[in-house]
Predict the 3D structure of the following.
Amino acid sequence: MLKDTKTEPFLFVWWLDLSSKMRTFLRVLLSAIGSIAIEFIHSASEGNALFQKPNFIMTFIAFFFFISTSLMLTTILRDKKEHVLMNEKLIRLTKIDPLTELYNQRFIPETIRKLIKHASKRTGEYIFCIKIDVDDFKTRINDVFGHEAGDQVLKQVATRLTKILQADDTIFRDGGDEFRILTLCSDPAGLENVLSNKLGPFSVLLDEELVPVSLSFGFASVPIEVQIKSEEQLLAFANIVEKTLHEESDHQMRQHKKSKRVGR
C-alpha cells in the first residue's frame, strides 16, 4: 500500500527541503553546541562557579539545546532511513513478480534500453529473446490440481530457468504461464541450440503424483548496428526492438507448440 504523503514526518520533509549548505551549517552548529555543553559540564565537575546563577542557567540551556537538537537529528535520520526503505519496497513491487520473484514485464523496456546501450558500443552484437510457455497449463494443471498446484509449477519453472541463465541474462515472468529471457549474444543460432537442449520436459510432484511438464518456446534476435546519440533516439529504437522481439518470439513459440500437438 502506498504511503500517504500527508502522514510523512514534518521534520523529515523539513530536512529534505533544506539546501545542502544549510544542512552542513546545522551539522556544524550541532557539533559546536555539543562542544560548548561538554565544556560547561566539565568545568562544573571541577568545582568552579558554573552552577551558580547565572552560569547555571547558561549551562542548563546549552545542555538542553544540545539534547533536543540531537533528538531532532536522530528523528530526521530515522525517518530518512524509513523513507529510503519504503522507496526500495515500492520499486521492488513495480519490478518483481511476487510469486516467482522474477522480474515482471514492466521491467522489460528498461532492460532492452540497457542492452542496446551496451551492444551499441561493440560490433556484431544481437539482443536475443526467448519466450517460454508452459504447455496445457490450465487444462492439465490448474483445472486438475488447483491453482496452488499451478503456482508451485510456475515456481519450479522459474527455478529451472534461473539455473540455465548466464551472468548477463535477465529472466521475466511475462504474465500467466509465460516467461521471457533477454540477453546479448554474438551467435544467435548457437545460443538457440544450447537453450533448446536445456529446456526439455521435467516432472513436478503434485498431490503425491509425478506430473510431466513440458515447455514451448520461441526465439528472436535483433542486430544492434546503430550508434545511439540521444535519449530520444534510444527510446524510439528500443520500442522497435521490443515490438520485433515480442512478435517474432511469440510467433515461433506458437509454432513450436503447434508442432508438438500435431506430433501427438
